[in-house]
Amino acid sequence: MQYKTIEVRRLGPVIGAEISGLDLRRPLNDRAAEELKAALFENQVLFFRDQDITPDQHRTLSQILGDAVTHPFFNTLSDDYPDISLIETGGADTPLEPGTSFAYWHTDMTFFENPPLAAILRAKKLPPMGSDTL
Question: Which of 11, 31, 67, 71 is buried deepest, with most CB atoms within 10 A?
Answer without folding.
Answer: 71
